[in-house]
Amino acid sequence: MGRVGRVALAVLVTIAAGLAFLLGCAPAAPQAPQAAPRAPAPAHPPVERLGLKVLAVHPHDPTCYTQGLVWHGGELYESCGQYGQSSLRRTDPTTGAVRQRVAVPANDFAEGLALVGERLLQLTWREGTALVYDRKSFGKTSELRYEGEGWGLCYDGKRLVMSDGSDRLTLRDPAS
After folding, report:
1. Tens-binned pLDDT, residue by residue, of the chain (176 aa)
2. Which DSSP string do the residues of 88-140 spell out, in sequence order?
3. Do residues 171 and 164 make contact, with C-beta atoms less than 8 angstroms apart?
4. Could you give the strand order of the β-sheet that contains 119-124, starting from the edge strand earlier in sequence?
5. 3-state SS, residue 37
6. H or E segment at 9?
7. pTM to 2 decimals?
């Protein structure tokens, strides 16, 4: 078979393969070996449906965009967030009256709040700063730096547990 014949044969094979593919007649590609069948997943008990019972309703300042709450000694400590409006507050949970308030710098968006001893630690959202206050006076005593965003914060008695809005929690030393 000459050169022209080989080219013609190659063109015909290519056309035939294309038609077979378009018509669904193409030969099956080699299959990977089948994995051993999996054991059936263990049966799980049905998910428990929980109910809700409202025990009390308390007044709250609707202008406070609540980001963090601490209940201590019958008082509510609250981190209110919004650029230009963030604050730390101590409120009377019965009346909703703000007993003490300190403004957060306008360029900080206040977030999570935790009580460690007599210190209140308040996260900022994107600023990477935890503001540290004396619980009684609300005087700012220091600032702590961290990487990433600050969202939620709680204290387990030994460590701070911090959320950055992702699916990960970070354990932090409350002193640093």
Report:
1. 554 444 444 444 445 444 444 455 444 555 555 666 777 777 888 999 999 999 999 899 999 999 999 999 999 999 999 999 999 999 999 999 999 999 999 999 999 999 999 999 999 999 999 999 999 999 999 999 999 999 999 999 999 999 999 999 999 999 99
2. EEEE-TTT--EEEEEEPPTT--EEEEEEETTEEEEEESSS-EEEEEETTT--E
3. no
4. 110-116, 119-124, 129-134, 140-145
5. coil
6. helix 3-22
7. 0.70
